[in-house]
Amino acid sequence: MQARVLRVAAPGGPDVLKPESVILPAPAPGEVRVRQTAIGLNYLDVYHRSGLYPLPMPTGVGSEAAGIVEEIGPGVSLVSAGDRVVYAGGPPGAYASQRNVEAARLVVIPDGVTDELAAAVMLKGMTVEYLLNRCHAVKPGEFVLFHAAAGGVGLLAGQWGRRLGATMIGVAGGGDKCRLAREHGYEEVVDRTSEDVVERVKAITGGAGVPVVYDSVGKATFDVSIACLAPRGLFVSFGTTTGAPPPVEASALQKRGSLYFTRPTLVIYTARREELVASATAVFDMVTRGVITVHIGARYALADAARAHADLEGGRTVGSSLLIP
């Protein structure tokens, strides 16, 4: 089986993504071959391509895709040929027309959910699920501050948090992104390009600050996030789109109000198959019941992945973006 793939020979900018034609072997024991119909674009892909998260080179890129099971390997019973499936996580390499995937990482797509929708929501939705349900259990009436509120994760978090009864405060850049965030569950939205985030958050919370802040931005927002927290608040750092935040000193957490700091990852929160299935089930339940809607802001041909990466890094995307093989 011949497949079209994008690979990286050495870390660098978007232009290091190069197309190749490869011969896929038959699926190994525990694997299936998936003909991919939609591929999710995530900032994790940028980290892998750029070398921020070092990988052995050359490497594939991409952690999320949906498609059709074409062939199953020995010992596979979780899925069957013809099933529509989606996966998120595992070894990079989703930027491909076909791929052999470990069956234990696959989830069957529910009826009523398209392949594109599944690929747009799986990784980002499970990220929101573990952040709001398990990393910190968001409570009714609680203030929650979420950076990058108009991004793929941010738009889902606004809706999910509102469903949990929280007062969601989003941070976004520019009027269009702020309006989009308000349409997706955020009761308050702060425009970081024209407003002082700390002042607005303190005004919204009556000077108390928030009990939890979710920050995927990293270096550029670290001090702001710390300043927005209430005493004994939790700083959840789950991304570094502007670079890594500075080292966290224990004494700083003490002096700023006995704060907590954590750096969680989806990999750990879905490491066991039962955790993966439970998280994905929760996401698709939210989707099929209409609790959350998924905003697909852009679709790119797989061959245009370099342009997609440039748009993502340049802040020109909103919501979820897809690559179409």
UniProtKB/TrEMBL annotation:
SUPFAM superfamilies on file: GroES-like, NAD(P)-binding Rossmann-fold domains
Keywords: NADP, Oxidoreductase
Gene3D superfamilies: Medium-chain alcohol dehydrogenases, catalytic domain, NAD(P)-binding Rossmann-like Domain
Database matches in PROSITE patterns: QOR_ZETA_CRYSTAL (PS01162)
Coiled-coil region: none
Residue intervals of the Enoyl reductase (ER) domain: 12-323
Regions crossing the membrane: none
SMART domains cross-referenced by the UniProt entry: PKS_ER
Gene Ontology annotations for the cellular component aspect, listed alphabetically: cytosol
Pfam family, one: ADH_N
Domain of life the protein comes from: Eukaryota
NCBIfam families, per database record: PRK10754.1
Annotated family: Belongs to the zinc-containing alcohol dehydrogenase family. Quinone oxidoreductase subfamily.
Name assigned to this protein: Probable quinone oxidoreductase
Biological classification of the source: Eukaryota, Metazoa, Porifera, Demospongiae, Heteroscleromorpha
